[in-house]
Amino acid sequence: MGNSDSKLNFRKAVIQLTTKTQPVEASEDVFWDQFWTDVNLTAQDMFALVPAAEIRAVREESPSNLATLCYKAVERLVLNADSGCVCERDRQTVLSCIRLLTRILPYIFEDPDWRGFFWSTVPKVGKTDESDDECTRPLAESLLTAISDLLFCPDFTVESHGRTSADGPSDIQSIDSCEFIWEAGVGFAQSPPLNHTHDSSRAELLKLLLTCFSEEMYQSPSDTHTPNPWVSFFCSRENRHALPLFTSLLNVVCAYDPVGYGIPYNHLMFSDQRGMLAELALQTLIVSLEQELVDHSNTSPNPSTNTDTCSTTRGENLFVNYLSRIHREEDFHFILRGISRLLNNPLLQTYLPHSCKKIQFHQELLVLFWKLCDLNKVPPYHFIFYLFSYLTIIILILQFLSRVGLVHICVFILLLLSGERNFGVRLNKPYSVRVPMDISVFAGTHADLLIVVFHKIITSGHQRLQPLYDCLLTIIVNVSPYLKSLSMVAANKLLHLLEVFSSPWFLFCSPVNHHLVFFLLEVFNNIIQYQFDGNFNLVYGIIRKRNLFHQLANLPTDVSSIQKALQRKRRSNSTHNAVFMETNNPLQTGTLNASLKAMPRIDKLTETSQVSEDGTTLSLQQSDSTHSQSDHSSETRKENQMCFPLRNIHADHIRFLRALFQVLSWKSKLPLQTIMRLLQVLVPQVEKICIDKGLTDESEILKFLQHGTLVGLLPVPHPILIRKYQANEGTALWFRTYMWGIIYLRKEDPPVWYDTDVKLFEIQRI
Q1: How far apart, in whole angstroms, are the C-alpha atoms of residue 266 and residue 257?
Q2: Region annotation Disordered: residue ranges (predicted)?
Q3: Which of 42, 218, 230, 505 could make an SS bond with 569 (beta carbons 3.0 to 4.6 A apart)?
């Protein structure tokens, strides 16, 4: 009965607010207290009793009342944070304010006229014992400070450690929050007792924090991107809880075990408040890490530097700083073990259907993994260095590659890792663990697994994946100089890709398709020049498919051949041709999906480096590569200029002329010398053995090739070129839309951003 009265009274207060035509003064506490004092409503109740239409109506017709409501709610949060929420009534008041602000903020952010409201200077709420020039501060700063304080408030979100109700406010403000970190792990050895009430309060605060950060969702991707001010302040030295917050969020995520003791169907019998907290902690963490350091040169190269004593400037993101400085082996082990356990959870197969709880935040986990690889680079003990001894997580990433919605983020991760020499070396480890994947059966190494999975993605015929082909092949190119022994299955997969990409109709139909052939030829050249001894399977495959290379060397450039190839493509309606259509890739959950920005091309994603004899890399200009993307772009522009006077000619003729100019520009640059020399030496030898011994079994030929050598017979080895991932505006925008698209779709109960005017991406109903 009491809860019904609370709902009724709250609804009456909302109606009063929406019907008042005159501003209500901030001093009228009796009116404003109706919204949070003695209000016992769940988040779902709050969303139902405060309709979107009424929030927009107050925003348009009584803006001063909406502004006062926000100010008074923040003021009440600050006052209770200062006092320490010493009684249950104060805690319930705080929760009501949190839920009300979570409901209102998205409708303030969606209106450009209100965009700067929370960053306008208002009379300082809470204590005013500072100097006169500091008695005002932006409302956003007061709100973020209060949230941070409340996340370490004894008896509300953390254990009290013996505090009594007689303790004054000064005791609350002076507590060392590093002693109240939520979970053992990085930087904290003690594991606090599990408290579902505290976890629930933390989750409510993190929802509000994410809502504050979400102002970024209401800015168009075409707008000039400026740092998110909410994240900037929250992760700056102005937040005295930055270090314990970072470690709490990271440890809660990595320590979470959704399976527990493995009792079937336990998730249906007991509520899992820690699971909800882990998801919100992960989302808060990846958003906080999205704003990177402006200047990385100040980062100390000494791995022994403590995270809590590092020097910072006001512009630094402390979360990024702390993440980049993790260096202890036990910390890396804790993080990798936790991420692997959680990534493996959605892939678990059980005998009893739905007997094991499956997490839904694996996409956010992949983003966190990306951040760890990209940001933790302080030598000599950095995350990637430790990762290469933990190949289990690479297998999990390859498993996720088979899911269309996860392909892009997994490819980004593998592209980043492939820029490291040790990654290619570690892929030579035998692949013995069999995981359920719909791929060809083979016996070989992790490198074979990578190639087989990539082949399946490329030949699956999914039209959304075409922009990823050059990224997938770039990864193989980067690791190819270190692959000691490819299996017959993997070798045949590579040759099949060359067969597909070197067909005349495919080469002529686009000005960039020949890049894929160049990448594959570079793979073959790297293996022949640097790993010939163990790769007899690939050499045998090249000999068997030698006609492919002869056809490439003799690719026709006459008018009739090009016309026939283009006409053959136009007549074909097969799904294989449709693979090469470029479209945006959507995120999808339930009945909604969020469209993502198109992924940048490989020349925008990578920077070419040359590997020297001592293993160090030297950055090269893109133009130094014989088939660099910039060269091809300039050639394409020349072709367009040459075709410009022909605008009145039939479109088919223009397409033909462009194809002719393209072939003439890159055919002479095909790196076929090494392969043709190999064929020139080995083909006669293999044919002679087959004739002399009457061989019909390929095992004897493989044995001959295994013990053969080409020392002194091949051209001088070319330098190894590695295309390393290079951060840029295009990838930053892609990650921003991907990350917020995931968070938007995940928040369904309550639907925080549903039906608001989001501009960062498009929402479609399916």
Answers
A1: 13
A2: 608-639
A3: 505
Any idea of the CA torsion for 173, 175, 181, 182, to the nearest 10 degrees? -60
127-136, 172-181, 260-269, 447-456: which is most confident: 447-456
Q: Is the peptide bond before 192 cis (omega within 30 degrees of 0)?
A: no
Q: Which residue has the tokens 């409302």?
A: 139
pLDDT at 643: 40
Distance, C-alpha 643 to centroid of its chain: 41
Other residues' Cβ atoms within 10 Å of the Cβ of residue 180: 21
- C-alpha torsion angle, residues 414, 416, 422, 424 (rounded to 10): 40
Residues 293, 316: contact at Cβ < 8 Å? Answer: yes
Torsion, CA 200, CA 203, CA 204, CA 210, rounded to 10: 180
Tokens at 349, concatenated = 């197969």
> Hey, how many other C-beta atoms are within 10 angstroms of the C-beta on 651?
8
DSSP string, 564-576: HHHHHHHH---HH
Position 602 scores a pLDDT of: 76
Three-state DSSP class for residue 523: helix
Number of H helices, E strands in the chain: 35, 8
C-beta separation of 120 from 108 below 8 A: no
SS3 188: strand
Distance, CA of 507 to chain centre: 32
- pTM equals 0.86
Dihedral of CA 654/660/663/668: which sign? Answer: negative
pLDDT at 159 over 80: yes
pLDDT at 129 over 70: no
pLDDT reported for residue 277: 96
C-alpha distance from residue 375 to each of 54, 213, 281, 288, 326 (Å): 44, 21, 19, 13, 10
pLDDT band at residue 597 using 50, 70 and 90 as cut-offs: low
Q: Other C-beta atoms within 10 Å of 380: how many?
A: 8
Which residue intervals of 536-672 are DSSP H helices? 536-544, 546-553, 559-571, 575-578, 602-605, 629-643, 651-666
321 pLDDT above the threshold of 60: yes
- DSSP states of 329-382: HHHHHHHHHHHHHHHHGGG---SSTT-S---S-HHHHHHHHHHHHHH---SSS-
> From residue 299, how far is each of 315, 321, 335, 667 by CA, in Å?
13, 8, 22, 47
Contact 292, 317 (CB under 8 A): yes
Share of the chain above pLDDT 90, in %: 49
Closest CA to 378 of 287, 475, 297: 297
Q: Is 51 helix (H, G, I), strand (E, B) or coil?
A: coil
